[in-house]
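Justification of computing resources. Each target in the renewal requires a structure prediction run like the one illustrated here; the chain below, 416 residues long, is used simply to show the kind of job we budget for.
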Amino acid sequence: MVSTSRSVAVPPVLPTSASPAPVRWRSRNFHGVAYLLVVLLVGANIPSALYGLYRTEFGFSAAVQTAIFAVYVVGMIPSLLLFGPLSDALGRRAVLGFAAAAGVVGATTMAFADATVWLFLGRIAQGIAVGAVSAAGTAALVDYEPDGDHQRAALVSSAGGALGGGLGPLVGGVVAQYLPHPLQTPFVVFLVALLPAVIAVALLPRGLRDRSAPLVRLPAIPAAIRRTFWLSTIAVGLSWGGVGLFQAVVPSWITGQLGVSNLVVGAAAASLVMVCSVAAQAVSGRLSARRAERTGLVVLVVGMLGLAVVAREPVLALLFVVTAVVGAGQGLTFAGGLRSVNAAVVVHAPGSQGGVLAAFYVVSYVGLAVPILAAGVAITAWGTGTAVTVLGVLGAVLCAAILVLGAVTGRTSPRR
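Resulting C-alpha cells:
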C-alpha cells in the first residue's frame, strides 16, 4: 500500500532523457502511466474486504490472516529498491510492463487459490507489482508530464496511490457482496480494468536507457540527520501500523464481531481511514513540518485510545468516528515526518535525498507490517476484543513516547 498528497514526496528515481514528443502524445503517455498506478493499487487493496471470507473458506487463524496482509511488504520493499534504478538501466516501459504482469499474476493467484499458501504467493506478487509501479511509475510521470511540471507529476503519483488504496477495499466489498463468486469476481473486474493500462504501457516509447545506472541503490542515512530521521520515521511507521489495523483486521472484525453481514460496511472502514489520511495531508501544508507531525501524533494517541474503547464497547458508529481520527492522525504524521526528513536532508546532507527517502519508505513499510503480525498473534491468543484493546493502548503509549522524546531531544531539521 502507497498513500499521500501535495506534501508527500516519493522516492526519487533518476529520470532518463525521453525523446521529444508532441504534447498530446506526452499527455497520453502521462495519463496511461497514472491509470496503471491507480489500477494496480486498487487490485492490491481488494483483499482487505475479503479476509473474512477467506477465513471461512480456508479455516485459518487471525494470525495467518494478518500474515497474509503483511507479506505484501515482503514483495514491495525489495521491489522499490530494485525497480527504480532498473528503470533507468532498462527504460520505463520494460519495468512498467513487468509491474502490470506481476499484478496479473497476483490477482490470478488470489482468485483461483485453493489453499492458503496461494494467498501468500498472490500477496507477494501484488507487493512486487506495487513496488515496481511506484518506483518506475513516478519517474515515468516526470518524463511524460506535458509541461515538464515535476511537482504535478509527484502530486499525481501520490494522489493516484491514495486513490487506489481507498477504492480497492470498496471495489472488493461491493463486488463480493452483490455479484456471484465473491472470491473470484473482484479480481476479474480488476483484470478487465487493467487491460487498458496494459495497452497504454505497450504504446509507451522505449525511451533512452542509462547503462551506467546502478541496478540497486541501497538506503543510506548521513550522520548529521540521523536523530531527525529516526524520530520522524518511527513516528510514521507507528502511524502506518494504526492504518494497517483498519485494513487487515477491522473489516473482518466488523462482519464477525459487530454482527454486520454486509461486506461493504467493513470495506468502507478500510477506505475511510485512507480518505481521511489523504484529506489531512492535503491541509497539512498550512502547518510547519514539525507541528504537523506533533499534531498527528496527538491525534493518533486519541484515535488509538478510541480503538481500545470500541474494542470493549463495540458500537459501529463510534468505530467509524475512530477510523476517521486514526486516518487524520496518520496523514498529518506522515506528511509532517516526510517534510521534516526532506528539510534535514536539504540543510545538512544535500545530495543524499534518494538514499534517505528509500530508507524512509523501507522503515515506514516495516512499521506497517510488524504491528499487523503482532495483532494476528494477539487475536489468536487472547481473542479480538482483548487484543485490539491492548494494541490500541500500546499504540497510544508508543505515539506519546515518540512525541515526548522529540520534544525533549530536539531535531536537526529546521522548522519548515
